[in-house]
Design goal:
Blueprint: H1 4-18, E1 25-27, E2 32-34, E3 38-42, E4 58-64, E5 68-79, E6 86-90, E7 99-104, E8 113-115, E9 119-125, E10 135-144, E11 152-155, E12 165-175, E13 184-186, E14 191-197, E15 204-213, E16 220-231, E17 237-248, E18 254-259, E19 263-265, E20 270-277, E21 285-288, E22 299-301, E23 307-314, E24 322-331, E25 335-336, E26 342-343, E27 349-350, E28 353-354, E29 359-362, E30 371-372, E31 382-386, E32 392-396, E33 399-400, E34 408-410, E35 417-418, E36 428-430, E37 439-440, E38 446-453, E39 459-466, E40 475-478, E41 484-485, E42 494-496, E43 500-502, E44 507-508, H2 510-513, E45 516-524, E46 527-536, E47 544-546, E48 553-554, E49 563-565, E50 574-575, E51 584-592, E52 595-603, E53 607-608, E54 613-616, E55 622-623, H3 626-629, E56 631-632, E57 637-639, E58 643-644, E59 650-651, H4 653-656, E60 659-667, E61 670-679, E62 682-683, E63 686-689, E64 695-696, E65 699-700, E66 705-707, E67 711-713, E68 717-718, H5 720-723, E69 726-733, E70 739-747, E71 753-755, E72 760-761, E73 768-769, E74 771-773, E75 778-780, ...
Parallel strand pairs: 1-3, 2-4, 19-24, 26-33, 34-39, 40-46, 47-52, 54-61, 63-70, 72-79, 81-86, 94-100, 102-109
Antiparallel strand pairs: 3-10, 4-9, 5-8, 5-10, 6-7, 6-9, 11-12, 12-15, 13-16, 14-15, 16-17, 18-20, 20-22, 21-23, 23-24, 25-28, 27-30, 29-31, 31-32, 35-37, 36-38, 38-39, 41-44, 42-45, 43-44, 45-46, 48-50, 49-51, 51-52, 53-56, 55-59, 57-60, 58-59, 60-61, 62-65, 64-68, 66-69, 67-68, 69-70, 71-74, ...
């Protein structure tokens, strides 16, 4: 049995969910043929209840769609009589096509059916009787093959030059309203000014006449592209791109020669090339002068004299050949007059070249004057000359190195010594007292010029002095005195000692020597002498930079006690920077012990002269010195975005980032600021499909220009079809002149797909994460939040979930239908009720909705697993019931039951007496209260607290508490009595009569309290009663006998007796079973009748509808095995009718009867 109510509710909701959709809906009420690309498929609803399918249906449902790649059918629910009502699927236009699914029956949902032949046939068949169900609901959709663009040809296929009209023909019809000038692009500079359809019929045509302006005026291949939008039978839209081309070969030939330059210097090379138009470009022939190859070029030429190059272009067309030429003027190079080889100590040499008037350069030409200076260094220097035509010449010359070294001195009479420092080594010495290898003999006082001659012939003079040393007198100097040269004779010795800065010239620096008296040594070959230099201490301190806004500072000189003088300083050294003007270099003097020293105080306001400097984000760091920012004074620190204090400090635009930044410079406690402007172009990587419409790229700030692949105008329109597949970097120059780039990913359009979504869900509050491909799109539909689908938010019914990705011609989408079953709705029973202790109350819920399966119920406390339960609560209780179908969100109900407080009874009875006497019972409700009333189950009822009645019996009293809900307390009270004695027995067998063939009876003793007694069997025989023994007696003849049992108790004070009639009759036996299980397990497989004494017998078995199934005409016929015509009958209740004749009590007995037999199958 099915639940018709549940089926009706589900189908109603199902149809309500579909009523908002536009797809066609078909009920299978006969053979149907459809060509819809999507729709809903239901059963006939032709059953008796208007919801089930009908009996005896045998229909086909055929879906055939032109150009279909696949037809996919998805079921939301399915229910049929298992094994009898079936559905089968075929991949083709009828049931002779290959079977791809089924047969399906029962309540299992068929899988998704996919047909790939272009047709799907569904065959449905239900039997003529039996049960039906609520059928099915399904949805189908069709995927069709993407159309191929038509092929286009032109008439004429090779137009002549100046043609204005051509005919374009497609191999398949094209909608006439799609063929318009804006749908075409044509290279060559022509535009389509008019289109005339030639054979439009039914809105489509194949031939169209195109008018061009200007006419075809060049010999070339003309490429024509036509784009139109096409919608197939399933309303799928496609953008079709049709490409065609034609050649024009007979336009007049034209040629032009191009060159890198028309004037060159001798020795230079350039490229020349030809560009030809007209005629047949595939057959061009280039005839060049000067032996250049047959091609347009470019050709590398290196003429040494002025040369004319000519090219003549011809082809295989009727067009006349064409020629052009270019002349390359070659200018002779200038010539530098030779520069002689010289020694480094030679004088300057004038430079000359032909033609004159050019410019000179080189390592030994330090200024624009045409002068070569050998003293710039020895070696092989190059000298360069550029004439007024820009032609150059260069020459390399030789400068030889030579140096005789420092002058030397010696005391007279010293041994010969080696002259040193001759450069280059290996030269020859000559002069007085000198050997060629440089040994000088200082035997004779005097001054001698000694010559050093190199192997290159260069000479230099060294002065050698021979005389005794004459030292200057000791001197006293101030520590602050500038350096000076000490002087002794002869010159050429070596000075040494504290403060000596140069050994050869005798340079002395008092500040280096420091305060005190220092011994200075002077040494020549063979002798030496000394002198004393006393340095008086004085130090005014180092120079100092001060901000004019600083307070006065104390200057300290060494040694202390001196006097200061200068602008802004007191004699004691207190310096006020506000007195001297800004940017003053204030020289202050410190005097003591006859010496003076100075220090310079630079009075400078910290300032940055340059501001509002503009940068691009990618510019190099700016050094924040005087040259970079015009700041003063130095030595300060920078702060602000993008700054560092390495060296003079730097500003790095990339670290600062885009925007206007204020930098601060602090020096000598003064601060100034400047503004740096960093221009940043904000660009955004994007992506678009290859077939997408052109898009406008965005950048900030606006107003710049764009460049790069796919950019079809400077304002930033990007055409993905022009760029092609791949990742392309495009460039943007903002109004500031700064460049930046971004990446545009041109991808191949992919179909959208929803992953993670099922076709059916229970009503459940669950977050189901979905994935949409390609990524980056958005989901829409009931129950969607971002990428999460929640069935409970969607609500019961059928919902369409759509995923859409892309824009600007790149939009793709996928949609799925989702069925959400009903929410579980419950109505509680017993909530808020009050009951008496021990009384029953029905608690539970009535549930509807859910997914159509059985409900389960979870109780807390765990008192039941049914929807409702009769309970006997012993205290006030809250029952929580969770109703679930195993899938949907459970419904939770809390049912509160109040239990009135309990009460009891106090009982008083009379003393025990013998049975037959009268005693009493008195009851009283506790706790004590005047609100109790009493009712005894006596006849008539008694309403007093005390009753008088027979002893040994129990009496029920009901006490009602009128104060607490009229709750009652029932109790059974016995008036005490001595033990009773009761005689009772039952015969075995306990039928109507004993059979003549088995006249033996057993008597089962059921007596109570009996100790002794006697059995009387009614046929004149007796035996003593023994407790616990069951006597057996056999009767000798048929008839009726009264059996009597006499008993008494152990005290012999109470007696009782019981009698029972037993009969013995002739035997007549007929037993017919009421069920059997013909399932072949060897147990109860046949409808077997047990009988005896039967002489005539007839049995007939029929169905509930009166159809005769089986018949027996003799008790010896084979028993029924549960089949009809060799086929098992279904499990059901069947009617039997029987007529029998048999022997009974010495005569004949007839029997006629009927009943039911149940066929049970496991």
């Amino acid at each position: 049995m099915k639940n018709l109510t549940s089926a009706y509710l589900f189908i109603s909701l199902f149809l309500m969910g579909f009523s908002v959709l536009a797809q066609p809906t078909y009920n299978l009420v006969g053979n149907l043929e459809v060509d819809d690309c999507e729709g809903y498929f239901f059963d006939s609803d032709a059953g008796l209840n208007g919801q089930d399918y009908g009996h005896g249906e045998d229909y086909t449902f055929q879906i055939c769609v032109p150009n279909a790649i696949s037809i996919e059918m998805t079921f939301f629910d399915f229910c049929s009589e298992a094994g009898f009502d079936v559905m089968t699927f075929y991949d083709g236009p009828d049931v002779n096509a290959p079977m791809i699914g089924g047969p399906y029956s029962g309540q299992d949902l068929p899988p998704t059916i996919i047909a790939t032949s272009g047709c799907l046939t569904v065959h449905w068949e239900s039997d003529a009787f039996g049960v039906a169900c609520d059928g099915w609901s399904a949805y189908w959709e069709v995927e069709v093959e993407e159309p191929e663009p038509p092929v286009v040809t032109f008439d004429p296929s090779s137009p002549t030059c100046s043609t204005e009209v051509i005919i374009m023909e497609f191999d398949t019809p094209v909608p006439c309203d799609s063929v318009y000038a804006g749908a075409f692009t044509l290279n060559g500079g022509q535009t389509i000014t008019n289109i005339n359809p030639l054979n439009c019929a039914g809105g489509e045509g194949t031939q169209y006449e195109l008018t061009l302006a200007p006419s075809l005026d060049e010999s070339m291949t003309y490429n024509l592209e036509f784009v139109y939008h096409y919608a197939d039978d399933c309303d799928n839209e496609f953008t079709l791109e049709v490409d065609g081309s034609f050649d024009v070969n007979d336009c007049p030939l034209q040629v032009e020669v191009f060159e890198d330059a028309t004037t060159i210097c001798e020795g230079e090379c350039i490229e020349i090339w030809a560009e030809a138009t007209g005629g047949n470009p595939n057959t061009y022939n280039y005839a060049w002068s000067n032996g250049l190859p047959n091609s347009p070029g470019p050709h590398l030429v290196c003429p040494t004299t002025t040369t004319t190059y000519t090219v003549t272009v011809s082809d295989a067309s009727p067009a006349a050949s064409a020629s052009d030429q270019t002349t390359i003027m070659v200018i002779p190079p200038p010539t530098i007059d030779p520069i002689p080889d010289v020694c480094r100590n030679n004088g300057a040499i004038p430079l000359t070249a032909n033609p004159p008037g050019g410019t000179w350069s080189g390592s030994h030409v330090p200024d624009p004057n045409p002068i070569f200076r050998p003293d710039s260094g020895w070696g092989n220097p190059w000298t360069y000359y550029t004439d007024l035509n820009g032609c150059t010449d260069s020459i390399q010359s030789q400068v030889y190195d030579v140096w005789a070294g420092f002058d030397q001195s010696s005391c007279p009479g010293e041994p010969p010594f080696q002259l040193d420092n001759g450069v280059p080594a290996g030269g020859v010495w000559s002069g007085p007292f000198t050997t060629p290898d440089g040994m000088f003999d200082p035997s004779t006082p005097g001054t001698y010029n000694i010559t050093y001659t190199t192997t290159d012939g260069c000479t230099d003079i060294k002065v050698v002095r021979v005389e005794n040393i004459a030292m200057p007198a000791d001197i006293t100097v101030c520590q602050s005195d500038p350096e000076f040269n000490l002087s002794a004779t002869p010159f050429g010795g070596v000075w040494s000692g504290p403060g000596v800065a140069n050994w050869y010239w005798g340079t002395y620096r008092p500040a280096d020597a420091g305060p005190g008296t220092h011994v200075i040594n002077y040494e020549i070959v063979g002798c030496s002498a000394t002198m004393n230099v006393a340095v008086t201490e004085i130090d005014a301190g180092g120079n100092y930079v001060i901000c004019p806004e600083e307070p006065a500072i104390q200057l300290n000189g060494t040694p202390a006690g001196g006097t200061w003088s200068g602008i802004g300083v007191s004699p004691s050294g207190l310096y006020d920077p506000t007195i001297a003007p800004d940017l003053t270099n204030d020289t202050l003097t410190y005097s003591i012990n006859g010496c003076t020293d100075t220090r310079v105080v630079f009075v400078q306001q910290t300032a940055i002269l340059w501001s509002n400097l503009e940068f691009c984000l990618y510019d190099d760091a700016l050094e924040l010195n005087w040259a970079g920012i015009h700041r003063y004074p130095g030595g300060g620190t920078w702060s602000g975005p993008g700054t560092d204090n390495n060296g003079a400090g730097h500003f790095t635009p990339a670290l600062a980032g885009g925007g206007t930044h204020t930098l601060y410079y602090e020096a000598n406690t003064c601060i100034d600021s400047t503004v740096m402007i960093v221009h940043e172009n904000n660009m955004f990587d994007t992506s678009i499909c290859e077939s997408g419409n052109p898009i406008q790229l965005m950048a900030l700030p606006a107003g710049g220009t764009w460049d790069g692949p796919g950019i079809i105008d400077p304002s930033g329109t990007f055409d993905p079809q022009d760029a092609g597949l791949g990742q392309h970097y495009v460039y943007y120059q903002g109004p500031s002149g700064c460049w930046d780039s971004c990446m545009v990913d041109v991808y191949q359009l992919q179909p959208a797909e929803i992953i993670g979504l099922q076709n059916t869900y229970c009503f459940i509050d669950s977050a189901i994460s979905l994935i949409g491909l390609p990524a980056g799109g958005a989901f829409t539909g009931n129950g969607m939040t971002d990428t999460i689908f929640n069935p409970s938010m969607a609500g019961p019914g059928i919902h369409e979930i759509t995923y859409t990705q892309g824009a600007a011609g790149c939009e793709v989408s996928d949609d799925m239908l989702v069925s959400v079953s009903d929410q579980i709705i419950t109505t509680s029973m017993g909530d808020g009720a009050a009951v008496c202790l021990g009384n029953a109350i029905t608690v539970g819920v009535e549930a509807t909705g859910g997914n159509g399966t059985f409900f389960t119920y979870t109780w807390n406390p765990n008192v039941s697993w049914f929807a409702t339960q009769e309970l006997y609560p012993d205290s006030t209780t809250s029952y929580v019931i969770s109703t679930s179908d195993g899938c949907s969100d459970p419904a939770i109900d809390t049912i509160d039951v109040f239990v009135y407080p309990p009460f009891s009874a106090f009982v008083e009875t009379s003393a025990p007496q013998c049975y037959g006497n009268t005693g009493y019972i008195t009851v009283r409700g506790e706790p004590a209260s005047p609100n109790y009333v009493y009712e005894w189950n006596t006849s008539p009822p008694s309403f007093d607290a005390t009753i008088f009645a027979d002893v040994g019996l129990s009496y029920e009293v009901t006490i009602t508490d009128l104060h607490n809900g009229n709750c009652t307390f029932d109790t059974l009270i016995t008036i005490p009595a001595f033990p009773n004695v009761t005689a009772h027995f039952t015969p075995n067998p306990n039928g109507n009569c004993l059979l003549e063939s088995d006249p033996i009876a057993e008597f089962i003793d059921l007596s109570q309290g009996a100790a002794t007694g006697t059995w009387d069997f009614g046929d004149g025989t007796q035996e003593d009663y023994v407790f616990g023994q069951y006597p057996v007696h056999e009767y000798a003849d048929t008839g009726t006998y009264t059996v009597t049992l006499y008993v008494e108790n152990a005290d012999a004070t109470c007696t009782d007796e019981y009698e029972f009639d037993v009969c013995v009759q002739p035997e007549f036996k007929l037993w017919i079973p009421n069920a059997f299980t013909p399932d072949g397990d060897g147990l109860n497989d046949y409808f077997e009748i047990v009988s005896s004494g039967i002489v005539e017998f007839e049995l007939l078995i029929s169905s509930s509808w009166g159809h005769k199934i089986y018949r027996m005409t003799s008790i010896d016929d084979p028993p029924w095995d549960g089949t009809y015509k060799g086929n098992p009958v279904q499990q059901d209740r069947y009617i039997y009718e029987v007529i029998a004749k048999g022997r009974h009590l010495g005569g004949v007995k007839f029997y006629k009867g009927s009943g039911y037999i149940h066929v049970i199958r496991h």
